[in-house]
Each structure stands twice: as C-alpha cells, then as structure tokens.
C-alpha cells in the first residue's frame, strides 16, 4: 500500500461558499457577503472598489449559497457514505463574533459549529477547520480597515481562544489562514483590504500580511497551549513556477515568483523573514512596522504541517513580449504543453509532484493537500444524475501523481481533501455554474433551484478510491 494506513481522505468547503444563512443565528455581515457576481466582482476582490452595503441590481450568491446552514446533516451523511474520514470546512468569523470586536462570543454561532462537529464525529469524520477562509467581519473593515490595522490581531486572537477552548476534543486539525499568499492577489478576500486613491498598495498588503503572520503564530501558540493534541497548519495557494525557456533570465524570474509565495510559508514554518524577502522589501521601499516580541513569536510558534491548494503550475517569462493569460487570480504565462479547463485554468497533474517535492524539500514537514479539483459545467439528466467522467479523469490523474510523490520521492503526506466536494459558489466568479462537487446541488446562477442534492458518477468513483486507500483509481 502506497499511502499511510491512517491517510485522511475527504473534501473541502468554505463557510461563505456553502453555508448561506448570512443573517441567521445572530451572524454579522462579512466582506464575503458583499461581493456580487458580474464585472464588479474582480475589482472588489482586488480591493479596487469599495462595497460596503448591498446594492440593488446586484446578485450576492454567498448570502444563501447552497444553504448548508440548514442541510449540513444531510451533507455530512453523504460525505460519510463516500467514506470520508476528514472534512475540511471553515468557521465564519462573524457567526462567532458578529462585529469581530465584541468581548463575548455569540452562543448561537458557537453552538452551530459544535453541533456540526459532533455530527462529523458521529459519522467517523475528523473536522479540519480553517479559522479564516477569505472572511472578515464587515465591522472590522469599516472601523479598523481589516488586517491593515494591528488591532485585528487581537480580535483574531480572541476568536482563537474561544474556538480552541470550546471545540477542544472535537477538532484537532486547524489551518490559520486559507491561501495566505492570496493577500497579494485578492486583498479584499485575503485581508479585508481596499485601497484609497494613490495609496502604496504593496506597503499596505505587506503590513497586513505581517499582521496575519503574527496572528498565525499566536494561533499556533494558543492551540498548542489549549490542547497539545492540536495540529496547526499553514495554507498556501501552491503551484510551482516554471521558467518559460532555459534563458537564465526566465529561470531567475521563476525563482523570484516562487519566493513571493514561499515568503509566507517560510515565516510560518521556518519562523523568520527570509533574507531574500528583507532585501526585496527594502528595494521596494516597503517598511514593515513590527512590535517587540514579534520576532520571537514567529520563531517559537511555527506550524506542525504544511497544507496547500493545488490547481495548476505557473509559468514565468522575463520577456515582456510574452503574453500573460488570465485564467485565475494569478497571472501566468500560457504553457503550450498544457490543456486548460473551461475557465482557462491550466491542467498539470505532474506539476503536483513538482510542487510537493519543492514543498517537502524546503520545509521537511508533513504535507496535506487540502484543495484540488476541476471546476466544470455539469449537465444533469432528468433524474439529476451527472456523468462527470471529465472530473474523474482530472482527479485520477492528480491522485496518481500524488501517490508517485509519496512512493517514488518519499514525501510524507497526511491527507487529501478535494475542493468543493459538494457543489458550491465559486470564489473567483461567484457563480454556481462552475462546479467541483461529487454531489450536484440544484441551484443555478440566478439563485433558483430546489437545493436538492444528487450523487454524481464521481461520487461512486471517489467512494471506491477511498475504500481502497487510493489503490484503485
Ligand atoms: C481557492 C479557494 C477556494 C476555491 C478555489 C476554487 O483559491 O481557496 O475558496 O473557491 O480556489 O476557485 P474558484 O471557486 O474561483 O473556482
């Protein structure tokens, strides 16, 4: 058997993309509620446009999403039927602290997740909890400017104290920030940031990143103090940069691009700002304000494991004539050897092995693949059944490569949770049309549909994969 006996198999979701119930149980408004579909979306995500209230004429899919808030029992039962022993989900911060800066948490919100975690355990499923997955209470953004303000560390710390204590014994796997490097590309999602005219955006982003890195170290510290059983991971939007040609200029640039991402994990896992980052910040004239104690905190409270999402490799070219392709939030040069998804994301199973090797070589800590999958248009038949062979192909190829990295390269891998194990709202587009799930949800781009759940062909396939611990793909 290639994979460890206790390999963690499951799927991943994020509160804002599946829960709905945006104003139920005392939940406060969050940044993610106020991002509509359509042309404005990217601008808001990138912090170029302010959206502080619901505006007529826009559609906000995250408000209702797939209503997992009311369907979670049914959904967890389906995950259990597939054989999941882990389920990655995130906590909506504004359910626990509706404004973010209260002294006392909201009991309804705490109870909701307690019930959900208990339901997971009843089904033999270990929750893997992302503390913040692109969400930040709106009040913290309006009052304090989100993560640009150091005070947000305090509020996050309070959230961690509350949830680690309350869920002790129910949750032992935690991720501090989803795709922490996304702050550079989608700062409103990553840190509740939007920019004023003429502002030095990089300065703001790196200062906010510093606050998140300190908060992450604090979370790790508290998690270990509250329960030594707790395992805390960082979470990177991973994907190796390939040089476009063997031109040394391209190679140097690819290395630079990789470092822009590794920077975060270098701090979270190695415990200090790396020399290259200090030099780069200096050259850009960016000054990070640190407080006494930050350096020690970062040094002493590094993560236990390295988790990451992988959708694709990336390509760097130093030649300004070589065009970038849009695809996802990362701009990359098109790789002529790769096919793309319907949304222009390049598909590179082998790149997963390259990425795993780089991460394992660099950090020498167990890895956990917490997102991977294919966003596609599904066409259900009249019974709601989807024959998603394209998804099965995509996942089978990636899982084969994942096994190779373990078997042939010796990577230590804790588990695999495919992204969007049940159809949910896309983070990039805000659409329902872009589906990742093993379970089809009857809900369309306009928010219509019965919300009924249907098992796709991939549901039965993944069940077999898990039952054989990945032997039978
Ligand atoms: C990652 C996010 C997820 C998820 C996924 C797929 O960046 O962590 O929240 O949505 O990408 O992206 P999309 O939904 O844009 O297809």
UniProtKB/TrEMBL annotation:
It comes from the Bacteria. Signal peptide: none annotated. Pfam families: Glyco_hydro_1. Its EC number is 3.2.1.86. The keyword Isomerase does not apply. GO terms for cellular component: cytosol. One of its GO terms (biological process) is carbohydrate catabolic process. PROSITE patterns: GLYCOSYL_HYDROL_F1_1, GLYCOSYL_HYDROL_F1_2. The active site is at residue 371. One of its GO terms (molecular function) is 6-phospho-beta-glucosidase activity. InterPro entries: GH, GH_1_N_CS, Glyco_hydro_1, Glyco_hydro_1_AS. The keyword Signal does not apply. Keywords: Glycosidase, Hydrolase. It is an enzyme of class 3 (hydrolase). Belongs to the glycosyl hydrolase 1 family. This is Aryl-phospho-beta-D-glucosidase BglH. The lineage of its organism: Bacteria, Bacillati, Bacillota, Bacilli, Lactobacillales. The gene is bglH.
